[in-house]
Amino acid sequence: xxxxxxxxxxxxxxxxxxxxxxxxxxxxxxxxxxxxxxxxxxxxxxxxxxxxxxxxxxxxxxxxxxxxxxxxxxxxxxxxxxxxxxxxxx
Length: 90
Prior knowledge:
With 90 residues, this protein is mainly α. It has helices at 2-15, 36-44, 64-71, 77-83, and strands spanning 24-26, 48-50.
């Protein structure tokens, strides 16, 4: 997995003027693997944090449905992004 991340970083650095990576946001099922974020931070010497797609979304914390959403934080990025789209977005 780290080799795939390295390929992505190499591609990014080769196709941008800056080539600098200030931080890495991880999401998805692999981000829940114990030690994964620490391995990326160590290997690439870059701060790593888990992406929380619900960070700027207001919701009723008392709702029983919220508990299920909190469990899905790491895997909900695509769904939240699609839900935030508007007509005409590309």
